[in-house]
Design brief:
heterodimer, A: about 260 residues, mainly alpha, about 0% strand, B: about 220 residues, alpha/beta, 5-stranded parallel sheet, 5 helices
């Protein structure tokens, strides 16, 4: 019995976590539909702050990472394939590696590192300081004021960052192709365009929607669970990062299996 | 306005802190809850506010059942509630003025009225000089006054005050006490105060409830 209980505890914990995630998502969606027009400026203001922090402030980091990744991918690929007519496959390579997989995935990893951690720590500190209780008692619905703007802000930011990441990575790849192999922009983009399909756009949009939900709600779950002491804040941040990374990689694998397998 | 039936609170380790409380505060009524530190006054106020779940029992505010149920979210803005916390409670990323204004803006109040109510509350609590500062940049007594000012600006039907005079110097104390007496005399407002030192409220016309400290169990 003791062994069974030991085996069952993590399963029960995981199911409780899934239940709590479902509750947070459904409650936030329901309360979003109940928002009045005169409450939109307050919620909109919070959303703008989240977009600025998660999206705008991360632009340089994402640009630099994407530019280097695009350039390095092309250097490595050409070092192996040169002489085999590899320039004809540049577009295929960039779409397969960057646009389909690494763009959304690395953007999500960067946002988890920068913003999911910040959201978990901020909500945890607010919970400890009684700010969440104060909001609720004074008629400010925490799902509408705290969770919805964070979700929307992360959604808008991840979408913008993925587009930016893909563009910069393609730019980095083109720089290498131009400087080392003398390819023209027209040839390079034509090669990319031929490989890109509507399914790739759909997969990217699906990933953006799911990854941003994972980031916002995992961070909110672990942040809002803090009850007693400040020492719980770093623990919540660590749990957020680990849990969000596992979820993002699992979803990425699932989407690849469903759409491309 | 507020009704507690067979209410019990547990400590985190499961021991019973408060048991079988029956309490009814009518509209315009005042209730003073006293007891030593650790007797459960603050927890009881949080249960009344719907932010903390009781071990068992029923809590109703303005005819809406908070427990068992959804807590304060069950009110959905249908009852105006004000809670002055003993410590914390002000949003640390907003200035004191923004803290006063947020619940009013969220109610959809016109900006001119929000401004007028916020300024009046800040002035009454002597906070105009620090209104543009965030809570961590002001003194503990200004934060305490900030909590009271937020309640004042909201003009609630039910006010819950957790040790509103604790840690205030003589000047700040008299400002806060004067405001508490105004609320106590208001026939449209129900007032519940939790205080460790009841002598500050001896002249207050209120029902009294004395809580005892939780018994310590021998190992």
């Amino acid at each position: 019995m003791v062994l069974l209980a030991r085996l069952g505890a993590p399963v029960r914990g995981f199911l409780e976590f899934l239940g709590d995630q479902a509750h947070l998502v459904l409650r936030t969606l329901r309360d979003a539909l109940l928002l009045r027009l005169d409450q939109l400026p307050v919620v909109g203001g919070q959303t703008k702050l989240q977009v600025r922090f998660t999206g705008l402030d991360a632009m340089w980091l994402v640009s630099g990472t994407a530019l280097l990744l695009g350039a390095v991918t092309l250097i490595q690929a050409f070092s192996q394939l040169s002489g085999l007519g590899a320039e004809n496959y540049i577009g295929t390579l960039m779409v397969l590696i960057i646009l389909r997989e690494l763009g959304p995935l690395l953007t999500a990893v960067l946002v988890i590192g920068r913003s999911a951690t910040a959201i978990a720590a901020e909500l945890g500190a607010m919970q400890l300081n009684g700010e969440v209780d104060a909001l609720a008692t004074h008629g400010v619905n925490p799902y509408q004021y705290l969770l919805l703007p964070r979700w929307l802000g992360v959604l808008v930011s991840v979408f913008a960052l993925v587009v930016f990441f893909d563009a910069m990575a393609l730019g980095g790849g083109f720089l290498v192709a131009k400087l080392k192999y003398g390819l023209t922009f027209g040839f390079y983009m034509d090669s990319v365009r031929k490989t890109l399909t509507n399914r790739d756009f759909a997969a990217t949009l699906l990933k953006v929607a799911l990854f941003s939900g994972v980031i916002a709600f995992h961070a909110s779950h672990f942040g809002l669970r803090i009850r007693r002491s400040q020492t719980e804040i770093p623990q919540a941040v660590t749990k957020t990062v680990v849990s969000a990374l596992v979820a993002v990689f699992s979803l990425d694998g699932l989407i690849a299996a469903l759409l491309y397998f | 306005m507020i009704e507690l039936l067979n209410l019990a609170l547990d400590l985190t380790e499961g021991r019973q802190l408060v048991q079988e409380i029956q309490l009814r505060v009518p509209r315009g009524g005042n209730q003073l809850i006293t007891g030593p530190s650790g007797s459960g006054k603050s927890r009881l106020l949080k249960v009344m506010a719907g932010t903390e779940r009781p071990a068992h029992g029923t809590v109703r505010v303005g005819g809406h059942q908070l427990w068992p149920g959804d807590g304060v979210l069950a009110l959905g803005g249908k009852v105006r509630l004000g809670f002055a916390f003993a410590a914390g409670g002000l949003l640390s990323n907003l200035t004191l003025r923004e803290n006063m204004a947020l619940p009013l803006r969220f109610q959809g109040m016109p900006p001119a009225e929000v401004r007028q109510r916020t300024e009046a509350a800040l002035e009454r609590l002597d906070l105009l000089a620090v209104a543009e500062l965030r809570p961590h940049a002001v003194s503990a007594s200004a934060r305490k006054h900030g909590n009271l000012a937020r309640v004042l600006a909201l003009a609630p039907e039910l006010i819950l005050l957790d040790d509103p005079l604790e840690g205030l110097d003589a000047g700040d104390r008299s400002i806060a006490l004067e405001l508490v007496q105004t609320w106590a005399a208001d026939p449209d407002c129900s007032l519940v105060i939790a205080a460790e030192e009841p002598h500050a409220f001896t002249h207050l016309k209120a029902e009294r409830l004395q809580l005892s400290p939780a018994p310590v169990e021998s190992p």
